[in-house]
Amino acid sequence: MASLIFDQDGLSRSLSNSPPTHYTLTIESFSMLTENSVDTYESGEFDAGGYKWKLVVYPNGNRKKNVEDHISVYLKMAEANSLQTGWEVSVDFRLFLLDQNKGIYLVLQDANMNKMCLHRAMLQVGFDRVIPLKEFSVASNGYLIDDTCVFGAEVFVCKERRAGKAECLSRIKKAFMNKHCWKIQSFSKLKSQCLLSELFTAGGQKWNIELYPKGDGDGENTHVSVYLSLANPEKLSPGSQLLTECTLRIVNQLDRKDKSRKLNHAWFSASSSSGGWSCFIKLDSFTMLDNGYLVNNTCLVEAEVTVYGIAKALAN
Questions:
Q1: Radius of gyration from C-alpha coordinates of the chain
Q2: What is the arithmetic mean of pLDDT over 146-165?
Q3: Helix (H) or strand (E) holding 299
Q4: Which end of the chain is least crowded, N or C, by CB within 10 Å?
């Protein structure tokens, strides 16, 4: 620790042999976040003091606060919408970063030991500059070993303690892009409001392409809507999230430019099992024969899906 230099006021750093009481977040592929320009990673929920919380990690620093070259970590109140109007919660919290070489934790907390007050206008508290990325990345410092790092949290509300939970974010080994092509015939005769493609596999999960011939939501009666959806989201373990990249495309059959849109670094889960666009392409543009999207009353829809990682809740 003597080789590390920190200069942020108001932040106390100490060492502890004890693991965090309430939550542990293991990121096995930290470079997966930085290489894919993932600005923010939110953990699953955990309980402490009668409330639900999340850890929020900014692997390249919180740009909203003009933070660069540091890791930012915060404690966030989860399910705040379920709380009564005018709620306030005072917390005494500590955030942890494991030195894997020594088996000890760097503990961060407010230097003045002040309790932080959370309310509807301030749902998270934490530290903008936990550690410089340069020092964090040096293996001899112990915080990032074999691309793995471990964060943690302790949260005390009215001095209440509860059993902890844990989560692990892992890279999908040898992640590669899966492409699925879907041919839709007799388009003008379709009666269904929503069409589902046949199932296809990407990242060990089953997926569908969803297409609304006459639009959905904001695109109803004006656009064709196209989405990627998990076929069996209920089969994901509770709290699991999939870091996914997807390109959806309507093929131009006259060898012109396809109509495509890309979902960058989307998180799919049981509660957020689809992603796409209600206004994918205007209906009049799609049906105009000279545009090449609908030829002989047939259209071709493609999905290119890559699953980079999965976050799973760990058993206690």
A1: 23
A2: 76
A3: strand 299-314
A4: C
Here the tokens at position 52 are 């639900």
Residues 171 and 29 sit within 8 Å (Cβ to Cβ): yes
Distance CA 93, CA 53 (A): 11
Residue with tokens 């919290």, as numbered in its chain: 93
pTM above 0.70, yes or no: no
284 class by beta-carbon count within 10 Å (0-12 exposed, 13-18 middle, 19+ buried) = exposed
Percent of the chain with pLDDT over 70: 92
Whole-number Å distance between alpha carbons of 5 and 239 = 36
Q: Which long-range contacts (CB under 8 A, 24 or more apart) does 38-45 make?
A: 38/243, 38/265, 39/63, 41/169, 42/76, 43/167, 43/311, 44/165, 44/167, 44/239, 44/241, 44/311, 44/313, 45/78, 45/79, 45/239
Nearest to 60 by CA among 125, 131, 148: 131
Tens-digit pLDDT profile for residues 31-49: 999 888 889 999 999 998 8
CA distance 181 to 140: 48
Torsion of CA 271, 210, 304, 25, to 10 degrees: 0
User: What integer pLDDT is reported at residue 127 of this predicted model?
Assistant: 92
pLDDT at residue 157 tops 90: no
Looking at per-residue pLDDT, the higher value among 229 and 110 belongs to 229
pLDDT tens digits for range 229-281: 999 999 888 889 999 999 999 999 998 899 999 999 899 999 899 999 999 99
Q: Is 4 in contact with 129 (CB distance < 8 Å)?
A: no
Is the CB of residue 66 less than 8 Å from the CB of residue 54?
no
Work out the number of other CB atoms within 10 angstroms of the CB of residue 18.
Answer: 10
Q: CA separation (Å) from 284 to 131, 223, 250, 254, 288?
A: 53, 8, 14, 17, 6
